[in-house]
Write the structure tokens for this entry.
Amino acid sequence: MKLMVVIPCYNEEQVLPETAKRLQAKMEQLIGGGLCGKDSRVLLVDDGSKDKTWELIAALHEENPLFEGLKLSRNRGHQNALLAGLMTARRHCDVSISMDADLQDDIDAVDRFLEEYEKGCDVVYGVRNKRKSDTFFKRRTALLFYKLMKGLGVDITYNHADYRLMSLRALDALGEFREVNLFLRGLAPLVGFQTGVVYYDRSERFAGESKYPFKKMLAFAVDGVTSFSVKPLRLITALGIIIFVISLLMLIYTLVSWIVGRAVSGWASTLASIWMIGGIQLLCLGVIGEYIGKIYSETKRRPRFIVERYLNEEKADPIVDE
């Protein structure tokens, strides 16, 4: 069984040497224990880094064929970089495991991933036991995000990010999804097949800075919601019906007040209602606009990633965004 470990990298020169060291030790252990074949590899995907990440990847490949490198033509974001690695890996492996480069994912959990695969699981999710390494704000917002996604009807695994195993047929099925706005932790459950879960303790980042500040986290959450649920649009419809009913009741009240001679002009209530309705309208237009923007991106059918270089023993060109 050939295993490919896929790791997207963006400005990871501070942590990459240690990541490579630990991965090499783990892969040698797995190969020695017969859990994967001698031709198993680690695919490092450079997502248009501005530092020396690609130079380090190229050096690792020259020193040890265990490491392969995939360089995207420009920065395309974590999800697109991960997809590029997975779609390239599926041409060369029987099973893939994706993880982040910052060493927060427990590398030792790979053994249990492969055990679940041997039991017949095509998709195995890495799920965090606890979120002690996160700040209070991040813990609360993460909890809110998962509850919101569940409430909107999105099939998503709580406390699972992108640490996951996918078999070859699961990767082939993933390749059939053509979304430009990627949210892989939502797409993986749509693949189907037998799934498993591996629980692990997530560590603090070994070095460098997080690549997901609050602004990116918020944008990621919006992509997740708008890519997998139309409930916000239905809520707008329900809100419109409620406001319409209230306006009819207010019209009746106004007419009755005028008939009985109790109509008194009040600037406060008028001004408040105008601001409220105006704010609701702008909010609704914003949500609708978000969906229209997604449609615009999808209809253009632009490639989700473009590969500039691929370093591997076979020297084969990868299939990119078919």
